[in-house]
Design goal:
- The chain is α/β, with parallel strands linked by helices and 300 residues long.
- Helices cover 47% and strands 19% of the residues.
- The strands form two sheets. It has an eight-stranded mixed sheet with strand order 3-2-1-4-9-6-10-5, with helices on both faces. A two-stranded antiparallel sheet has the order 7-8.
- Helix 1 packs parallel to helix 2, helix 8 runs antiparallel to helix 9 and helix 9 runs antiparallel to helix 10.
- The longest helix has 24 residues.
- The relative contact order is 0.13.
């Protein structure tokens, strides 16, 4: 009987997926017969050679499912394909650029066994093994942008997770399959970005904020050197707007919240640049994004 299904969506992920699976295998504290690995490829250039290498690493076909998705429907749609095939009661969503740092499976599953109301289970996300820079959760998009930015920074620093107001990073988390199915899984209208906020909102409305954060369990998400671009900022914004408009939350309020958030980010990066530690490219991106947001607010 499978106790845990791990879902990984890939898209030209050869640089990441092999080390990801090696880490899972190295730190797994479950017997293989209790673990199910499901990899959904969203139409990479050449998935079959990758699948062959994955079989070599994993070493068994009895507990692995490899799927060539019939379309690249986005991160959520790819995960939904895998979740629907999962046979375990608890699902772990994981990005291919995530690396486990220690055994986590038994601890997480015990939490679900001990608390039948528990829906989601998060861990501390480190952006580097050497730099103590946790970024494990963020505030919901409906919160005032100034408050959410300050709370996100402070609470991540002191490991204080507020389940009513914060959602886990989507790069790696556990979720009870039945609860997730009951709310319709990932919203496939969101191609990329904004999924975590949306999931948190829908689960909270139906079941209450029964989420647990374990600050003693860690994983690495290899995203430390990623610098947000203007295109990325706008795509994230549009996903958040689409998600919230479905719930009756006005776009103007989202624009305002995002502008408040961007103000703080801009001046924080401006100070870093003045001290010779910041990134001028990021500063320019935030400057342009602020102007876009102001224009959107004026036109809404």
């Amino acid at each position: 009987m499978k106790r845990l299904s791990i879902i990984i969506v890939t898209y030209n992920s050869e640089r990441d997926i092999y080390d990801c699976l090696t880490a899972i295998d190295s730190y797994s504290d479950l017997p293989r017969e209790e673990l199910e690995l499901i990899i959904v490829d969203n139409q990479s250039r050449s998935p079959q050679p990758m699948f062959e290498k994955i079989r070599e690493i994993w070493g068994s076909d009895s507990d692995i499912i490899l799927i060539e998705n019939d379309r690249n429907g986005g991160y959520g749609q790819g995960n939904n394909v895998g979740i629907r095939l999962a046979t375990a009661p608890v699902v772990m969503i994981m990005n291919p650029d995530v690396r486990l740092m220690e055994p986590v499976f038994k601890t997480a599953l015990k939490a679900f066994d001990d608390d039948e109301k528990l829906i989601m289970y998060g861990m501390k996300q480190m952006l580097s093994a050497d730099i103590k820079s946790p970024l494990s959760f963020d505030c919901i998009s409906r919160m005032n942008g100034y408050l959410s930015t300050l709370l996100t920074t402070l609470c991540n620093r002191i490991d204080c997770y507020l389940p009513h107001y914060m959602y886990f990073s989507g790069s790696c988390f556990f979720i009870r399959k039945k609860n997730f199915e009951d709310i319709g899984l990932f919203d496939e209208d969101l191609f990329l970005y904004g999924e975590e906020d949306d999931i948190h909102e829908r689960l909270s409305r139906r079941y209450g904020p029964h989420f647990f954060y374990n600050r003693h369990l860690h994983y690495i998400h290899l995203a430390l050197n990623r610098i947000p671009t203007l295109d990325l900022e706008q795509k994230m914004l549009q996903s958040i707007i689409r998600s919230n408009e479905k719930k009756g939350y006005p776009a103007r309020r989202i624009f305002t919240n995002r502008l408040q958030n961007t103000h703080i980010r801009y001046w924080r990066e401006w100070l870093r640049v003045k001290r010779g530690k910041g990134n001028k490219e990021l500063l320019e991106t935030l400057k342009q994004f602020r102007q876009i947001l102001k224009t959107q607010i004026s036109n809404t």
